[in-house]
Amino acid sequence: MRRCDELGAISDERGRLTRTFASPAMRRANQLVGAWMREAGLQVHEDAAFNLIGRLPGTNRGAKTFLLGSHLDTVRDAGKYDGPLGVLTAIATVQLLRERDVTLPLHLEVAGFSDEEGVRYQTTYLGSRALAGTLTAADLARIQEKQIVEARRKKNEFLGYAEVHIEQGPVLEKNNLPVGVVTAIAGQSRLRVEFHGVAGHAGTVPMNLRHDALAGAAELVLAAEDCGALATVGKLEVANGASNVIPGNVSLTLDVRDQQDARRIAAVKALQTKAKTIARQRGLKLIWQPVHQTGAVQCDKKLTQIFSNGVAQSGLKVLTLPSGAGHDAAALSTICPVAMLFVRCKGGVSHNPAESIKTADVAIAIGVLADFIQTLVKRYA
Fold first, then answer.
1. By the 8 A CB rule, do 240 and 276 touch?
2. Rounded to whole angstroms, how far apart are CA atoms 164 and 365?
3. Which of 2, 199, 225, 381 has its C-alpha lying 20 to 30 A from 306's C-alpha?
4. What are the start-end ranges of the E strands in 167-204?
């Protein structure tokens, strides 16, 4: 928890926590967390995608590697636990395993991924997708750091991946439980939408003769609330906005999520159809641009069961729940089985400086994660 505080003080912006891909603050964060990794006995390096990797070699040189971790980047004006908690609990787990004198026949790595939030380039999982080797030509066209493809690891190298993360929702708190086991990660569609109309004088153009781009955008925002999936317009920009000018050009972001890909895709199609109708009826030009899409991910049943057993052995009720948020586990599911453990957060608040977790809950998560690794060791010894 002290490390979370110390890491949370490293930011690209004064007065609020913001760390973005390849920024000076991210470099300083990697240096600090790398020092903690070394204290835990890990061999540390930064890969071509600026992912921080700590490795604890196993006794069997030919064994596969099990990966732990999360991300070290943040949204703008962030809380200090979303992402970093998973990296720091993994480091603490390695320390605990060493204190227990656990012999590892498999290799263990801890990853602090460089970009999960996608703030700088508006494309999520840059760090973990670079490691997984799933970056597309469109991704590379959007970013400056082309060398990140060199971070790709061999597809058969990993036995699995486990991630501890704050829930970012209220379910665990409502059930008075410190941790929960994740069953699935929602698929996401991110889009940029533009409405182009005609700017005009607010006092001279009759209402029935206007081509108001903002009014059209407002209709789409309301339609998103009733599209059958979780949909959010998180950013709305009026070009050259003024109180006495009819908005001529408006752009907005659209984020649509669901644990069922078919339902998410149907919602996106319905919203696109609605946007076309709005544009036609109001005499607007529509630009509909998909930015990023990830499919829903089911967590591995065997690894999930190990987590569930560990929670039960701690004397706690086992609560399983899906994640509506995206995680690096989704990107890594393309190359290995994945599992996740949620930690309760106060009020379900996240992506907000008010993020808050309990020290006792984190201690339980570290214990469950250590038991998880020890179970793997017994199975693969």
1. no
2. 8
3. 2
4. 179-185, 187-196, 200-201
Inter-residue contact 378 to 103 (CB < 8 Å): no
Q: Which two tokens stand for residue 219?
A: 């209709």
Q: Please tell me whether residues 276 and 320 are part of one structural domain.
A: no
- Is residue 116 within 8 Å of residue 128, measured between CB atoms? yes
pLDDT in tens, 179-202: 999 999 999 999 999 999 999 999
Domain shared by 24 and 154, yes or no: yes
Residue whose entry in the numeric block shows the structure tokens 């967390």: 33
CA angle, residues 181, 331, 150, in degrees to nearest 5? 140
Beta 107-113 vs 158-166: how paired, if at all? unpaired
**Which runs of E-coded beta strand occur in 230-281?**
230-232, 236-238, 245-246, 249-258
165 with 252, same domain: the answer is no
Q: Are residues 46 and 176 in the same domain?
A: yes
Q: Residue 263's Cα: distance from chain center in Å?
A: 21
Final residue of a structural domain among 279, 294, 309: 294
Q: Which residue has the tokens 């991704």?
A: 139
Q: What are phi and psi of 40, to 5 degrees?
A: -80, 0
Q: Which CATH number goes with the domain that contains 91?
A: 3.40.630.10
Are 339 and 306 in contact by the 8 Å Cβ rule? The answer is yes
How far apart (Å, rounded) are the C-alpha atoms in residues 190 and 124? Answer: 10
Token digits for 157? 């190298």
Global pTM?
Answer: 0.85
Q: Is 358 helix (H, G, I), strand (E, B) or coil?
A: coil
* Secondary structure tally for the chain: helices H, strands E: 11, 16
Q: 301 with 195, same domain?
A: no
Which range marks the domain in which residue 243 is found?
A: 188-294
351 touches 76 (CB < 8 A): no
Is the pLDDT at 381 greater than 70, yes or no? no
Of the candidates 103, 1, 105, 95, which has an alpha carbon nearest to the alpha carbon of residue 42? 95
pLDDT in tens, 261-278: 999 999 999 999 999 999
What backbone phi and psi angles, to 5 degrees, belong to 308? -60, -40
Instruction: Compute the distance between CA of residue 29 and CA of residue 21 in angstroms, rounded to an integer.
Output: 11
